[in-house]
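step=encode ok
step=design start
structure_in=
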């Protein structure tokens, strides 16, 4: 946790007094960084839009994009220009007052890259510094563009393109360095963060988060801490084949006060430690927050939130910085609500654990020991003797969707997710490069056929917006939300808290109570966080709108939405613009009458869950990819085989799966899809109002 030993705080410390280190209101007119300011608090000192005036908020302008996949980016506003990235990493610059497009740039990410991505062709944003826009692409490039023209200045490939690396996170700038991580742990990669010179694009350093599977040094600043701290915590050889994981796929924060970088590290490969590391060892630096010297990448300290993680409990979630009084002494702290369900407060100068309290339902651990810094894990959570229904599940109590901190209330607002997961070890696990390698039985994630079971599943799965007191470690208020995954947050000096949700409603709430004060139907689900800026004496609130990402795969427990193009929507007081309604899309009719297959639908379900579910959804419902129950390709064996085996649709992102499936497997999948299609056809044939259960609603 702190260099070679854990630094502990004995007894319970009252956390009193919290300062946001915020610049004055005048300096907050821009939104120059991903998290608003260097402390990543997603707070704005602007207050023209406030509890009294928000009822007059209206749409000022909007832009509709040409992609209908998920939109996760936070717009950046610098010097009157709003910069955004969309899915497929297309980059736009807008006049922030009028919405006029100043330039756009398409890096032309190859469609087959999508097969390497767990979670859609999304982008969480760009960085802007010294007249340059820095952006990363799904296929692993880091780009520098001229901020005025959008013309490329340099491009660097940051990953081994022969492996299944992807990038979905936003770069961050630290002085004359731009930093970027990567994703793809389940597919067989080794995680790291890399720093490049902002002017030339030259690689300056890399910090690897897990030991080199080949047992040799990398010639990077991570060599010594990996040798001394990490290597003794790994066992066996399975992880060497898979690369170990530990990708830095989201939160990277630069602390100018200490000239340090904090990175959040992800899960291992496979997830199950019994398979990955003979069931023992902490497996550093998986699921850890690691502090590095910004200029050199040298290790300073680490804290591991989930030692020996078996549950996909990443620590890649939003890292927030602040100053906090503890016993009358001001300490520089780091706060995070990672997937595992505990809210952590650390002294960011040395990694000392100050507080760790559950912010959502947790049953895998009874608490966190402040003396050792480790969670007190219940034996059943290792799912060694029997399956375990665990809270939170692998989706996490909180994922990448940003939190916000209000200087007025002293509260941290968290978009939480309540969704348990049945953990069952996969007895047939074997590593397959470029394929999902979890070591957890995927069939346990399927949506059941039984209507009562579906109802119970829906009841257990919901979202909550909570107001967390980091001083006391308690929830001050919460608001239940119908669906599990909702948008990130923005807090303002106007006493407001902004958030969009899965149903397409954009809310402004009273930050003190959570009561809604204003609502706007944006016409599509929201996962992105809003931001705000002031230009020409007027305050604006901007939001990327577009339903997608991993949330879109969860079958019956997320709202059904047609695929709709994404939009950037910008709001201001007394604005009267109207965006046209999205056209109603009639679902393609299902007609599989008389079609048969000699395949085994039970084996087909297992093969589907293993190979197809990640993109095509639970129970083949389809979300950001084709609804296979309605596809013509399932109507004949050769048709489906031509896609799955021969790769006929590779140019559209549906690559060949011949490495993992043979024609018998494909016919079994076809048998399963016909079963689901027949079920849907019967459900849609029932009169309106008749009871039915369908995977698409």
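sequence_out=
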């Amino acid at each position: 946790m702190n260099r070679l030993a854990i630094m502990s705080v004995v007894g319970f410390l009252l956390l009193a007094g919290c300062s946001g280190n915020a610049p004055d209101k005048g300096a907050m007119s821009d939104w120059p960084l991903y998290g608003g300011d260097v402390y990543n608090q997603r707070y704005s000192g602007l207050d023209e839009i406030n509890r009294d005036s928000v009822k007059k908020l209206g749409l000022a302008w909007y832009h509709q994009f040409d992609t209908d996949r998920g939109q996760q980016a936070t717009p950046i506003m610098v010097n009157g220009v709003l910069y955004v990235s969309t899915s497929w990493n297309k980059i736009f610059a807008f006049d922030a007052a009028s919405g006029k497009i100043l330039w756009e740039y398409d890096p032309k990410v190859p469609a087959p890259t999508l097969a390497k991505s767990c979670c859609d062709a999304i982008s969480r944003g760009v960085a802007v510094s010294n007249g340059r826009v820095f952006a990363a692409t799904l296929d692993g490039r880091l780009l520098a563009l001229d901020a005025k023209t959008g013309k490329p200045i340099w491009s660097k490939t940051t990953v081994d393109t022969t492996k299944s690396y992807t990038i979905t996170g936003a770069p961050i700038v630290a002085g004359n360095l731009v930093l970027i991580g990567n994703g793809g742990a389940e597919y067989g990669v080794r995680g790291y963060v890399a720093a490049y010179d902002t002017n030339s694009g030259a690689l300056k350093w890399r910090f690897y988060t897990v030991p080199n599977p080949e047992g040799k040094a990398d010639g990077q600043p991570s060599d010594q801490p990996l040798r001394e701290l990490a290597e003794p915590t790994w066992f066996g050889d399975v992880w060497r084949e898979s690369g170990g994981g530990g990708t830095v796929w989201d939160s990277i924060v630069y602390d100018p006060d200490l000239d340090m970088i904090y990175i959040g590290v992800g899960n291992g490969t496979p997830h199950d430690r019994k398979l990955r590391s003979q069931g023992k060892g902490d497996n550093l630096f998986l699921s850890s927050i690691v502090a590095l010297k910004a200029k050199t990448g040298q290790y300073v300290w680490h804290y591991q939130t989930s030692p020996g993680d078996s549950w996909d409990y990443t620590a890649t979630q939003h890292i927030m910085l602040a100053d906090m009084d503890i016993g009358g002494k001001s300490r520089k702290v780091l706060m995070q609500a990672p997937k595992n369900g505990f809210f952590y407060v650390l002294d960011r100068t040395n990694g000392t654990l100050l507080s760790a309290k559950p912010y959502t339902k947790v049953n895998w651990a009874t608490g966190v020991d402040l003396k050792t810094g480790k969670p007190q894990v219940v034996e059943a959570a290792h799912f060694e003797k029997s399956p375990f229904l665990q809270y939170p599940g692998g989706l996490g109590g909180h994922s990448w969707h940003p939190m916000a901190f209000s200087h007025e209330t002293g509260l941290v607002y968290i978009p939480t997710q309540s969704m348990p997961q049945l953990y069952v070890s996969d007895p047939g696990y074997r590593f397959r490069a470029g394929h999902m390698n979890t070591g957890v039985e995927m069939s346990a994630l399927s949506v059941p056929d039984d209507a009562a079971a579906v109802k119970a599943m829906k009841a257990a799965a919901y979202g909550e917006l909570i107001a967390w007191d980091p001083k006391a470690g308690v929830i001050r208020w919460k608001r239940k939300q119908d669906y599990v995954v909702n948008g990130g947050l923005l807090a303002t000096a106007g006493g407001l808290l902004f958030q969009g949700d899965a149903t397409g409603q954009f809310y402004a709430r009273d930050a003190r109570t959570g009561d809604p004060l204003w609502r706007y139907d944006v016409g599509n689900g929201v996962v992105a966080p809003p931001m705000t800026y002031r230009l020409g004496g007027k305050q604006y609130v901007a939001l990327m709108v577009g339903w997608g990402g991993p949330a879109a795969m969860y079958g019956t427990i997320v709202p059904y939405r047609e695929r709709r193009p994404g939009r950037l929507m910008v709001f201001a007081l007394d604005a009267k613009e109207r965006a046209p309604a999205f056209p109603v899309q009639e679902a393609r009719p299902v007609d599989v009458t008389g079609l048969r297959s000699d395949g085994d639908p039970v084996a087909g379900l297992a093969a589907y869950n293993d190979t197809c579910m990640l993109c095509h959804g639970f129970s083949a419902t389809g979300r950001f990819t084709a609804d296979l129950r309605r596809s013509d390709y399932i109507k004949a064996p050769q048709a489906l085989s031509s896609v799955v085996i021969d790769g006929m649709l590779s140019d559209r992102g549906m690559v060949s799966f011949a490495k993992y499936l043979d024609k018998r497997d494909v016919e079994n999948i076809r048998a399963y899809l016909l079963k689901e299609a027949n079920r849907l056809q019967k459900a849609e044939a029932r009169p309106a109002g008749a009871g039915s259960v369908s995977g698409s609603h």
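step=design ok
step=annotate ok -> The chain is about 10% helix and 30% strand.
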